[in-house]
Amino acid sequence: MSAPVEDRRPRDVGALGRGHRAAHVVEHPTHPGVPRATERDGSPWPPYSPCGPDCLPPGARPARLRAARRTVALLAVIAAAVATLPLVALFGRRATDRAMRRTSRAALRAAGVELRVTGGERFADDGGVLVVANHLSWIDVLALGAVQPVRMIAKREVGDWPVVGRIAARSGALFVDRAGLRSLPAVVDDTADALRAGSAVGVFPEGTTWCGSAAGPFRRAPFQAAVDAGVPVRPVTLELRLADGRPTTAASFVGDETLADSLRRVLALDGLVCELTLHPLLRPGPGEDRRVLAARARRVVTGAALRRAASVETEPAAA
What is the Cβ-side half-sphere exposure of residue 274, based on CA atoms within 13 angstroms? Predict the structure, then answer.
C-alpha cells in the first residue's frame, strides 16, 4: 500500500504575520516523494521534478503598468545584444565576455531583479572551472552570467528558441539531448575540452527546475568532465526572495508553464532579489570519482539553502 501523498501547496505568510495571506510569499511548501527512475512512466533518463502549479503562490492584482514598462526595457536590452554582440565578437573573447556580462546585468535590472552576490566576485580567477548550481528559473542563467561569463550546458531545444538561442550560441553554450544517452559521452568530452581551455562552464545538475523549497538529485555526468580535465568545481546556491528577505516561488519556472507565463509573473512583481552564494572551490580528493564529487557539491549547494530557510522560519513574525 502506497504512502499518503502530502499536500504540497504553498502556505502564504504576509506582512501582517502568520495566518494572513499575501501573494508571492511562500513559507514551506512540501513535495511528494520523488519516485525512483525505474518507477516513472516512460524513459528513466529525462530529468524529473515534482514541482508544478501548486508550488506557485496565488496571483496578485496584475501590475500592468509595471510589467509593460519592464517589458519594454527588457526588449531593448535583448535588441541591443542581438545587434552588438556579432560586432563585439570581432574584438576577441575578452570583449565578448565583457559584453555578455553587461548584457546579463542589464537584463536583470530591466526585469526588476536585484542581484546580490556573496562569497567572491568571480567563479575562478584563473583557469577552467565547473560552476554547478541549483535550478529555479530562467533568471538563474542571467545571474550566473552577470558574475562571470559562463558556457552553459543547455538542453538542445534552447538552441532553437528565437533570439535566446542565438545569444546562447554566441556565449558558447554546449547543447545536450536530454531525451537520450547517445550524445552524452560527446557532451562530456566537449565540456572537458572547454574546461581544459580555461573556460568557466555552467551546469544545473538537477537537469530541470525546482521551486526552491526542495531540491533534486545531482546528475553525475558533468562532474566527470571536471575529473577528466583536472579542474575544480565551484558550487553556487541560488535563492529568490522578496525585497524584505522572505523566500518566494513566484519567480520559479516550473511544471508545464511557458517562458512567457513566467516572464509575465516576474515582470509584475514588486521587487525581487536573486541571491548567489559562491562556495569554496571543490577539488576531487584521492580516489574520488564523479559520484563522490557530485554528492559533495549537492550537500554544499542545497545545505546552504536549507540553513537559510530554517533561519527565516525561526524569525519572529512581523507585527
Answer: 30
pLDDT of 222-279, one tens digit each?
Answer: 999 999 999 999 999 999 998 888 888 888 888 888 888 888 889 999 889 999 999 9
pLDDT tens digits, residue range 58-93? 766 668 889 999 999 999 999 999 899 889 989 988
Does this model's pTM top 0.90?
A: no
